[in-house]
């Protein structure tokens, strides 16, 4: 069995699918055309599938032999932004929507893997769950697939990748431990008593305590959090008032927190609430804090699974990226890794075309299509190694 040659046989298939998905992007929880095409391609490959939750599609490849189970995940949603370069033959045809994060490639690569699984069935045992996840960009989908997988008895391993526009094709970043941050959004509402700007003594100004709160919560990582457990508190917006002579009733602060250790979010919530409520009270105002999940958990790779992934990646020709710090970006694939042993990795796909950007969420974003075949080979090689033992 030559996985390199087999992956070459599906390379154009994957490229064509990626271009199709790129031309027809759909935002989170609206991936109706995308999921219909996924189901169609799974049907062609003879792989049964189910719809899970609010539109996720899970293909079930059963070898018919007892053994372990493996889940492979791909996110499928696009972003609400315009693609600037309309000259590319595969540019987005949907105004205001673009695949500017690589999820079109993720979807196509997992379908390429699905197409090859029947070809390598004799080398496998157990089951492979092909998990096409909706709405990753808004924190959806992952929890629904994980709950469904648990209903099936769970899986012995889960793997996934994110195409990396900042590194070259053939490079893989697959670390042990923390890889990406958990993320929450926060909103702080400071409430006072409005009035005329000429008589602040007859008002309770919420703007001054809001400014004080912003500075104080921004200092929490340095002043109150374990320096060996990295976190970020980033207040990005402050609003209050409508005119130069009106003391407003409410001032608002909005921002986000990032963390790399299970449970740290609760410590940060508690500290933020304490600072907000006490500072507001010192000014004679009241305050309320609301937290909204972005990505509930940090992405933390299982060291044993990550080591196996690096070994297999090198065997199929990937070059390991030099060790570097985790990213403060987030991905709710973290839900899979909390539930099951596995890993997430970045695989290089930097596009060298003139005018293209490797910066994710950029209106000029594009991918090096030669990266896709490598990932399909890697996924299949991992399945053979893990399910063929």
Short description:
The chain is α/β, with parallel strands linked by helices. The protein contains 11 helices and 16 strands. The strands form 4 sheets. Strands 1-2-4-3-5-16-6-15 form an 8-stranded mixed sheet. Strands 10-12-8-13 form a 4-stranded antiparallel sheet, covered by helices on one side.
Q: Assign the CATH architecture of the largest domain.
A: 3-Layer(aba) Sandwich
Order of helices and strands: HHHEEEHEHEEEEEHHEEEHEEHEHEH
Mean pLDDT, to the nearest integer, reads: 96
Determine and state the CATH class of the largest domain: Alpha Beta
The radius of gyration is 24 Å
Tell me the major beta sheet. Answer: 8 strands, mixed
Instruction: Going across the biggest sheet, name each strand in turn.
Output: 1-2-4-3-5-16-6-15
- Give the domain tally: 2
Structural class: alpha/beta
Give the termini separation: 16 Å
Q: Strand fraction band?
A: 15-25%
Number of helices: 11
Helix content: 25-40%
Low-confidence runs of at least 5 consecutive residues? none
Classified in CATH, the superfamily of the largest domain is Zn peptidases
Q: Using DSSP, what is the number of strands?
A: 16
Q: What spatial form do the alpha-carbon principal axes imply?
A: elongated
CATH topology of the largest domain: Aminopeptidase
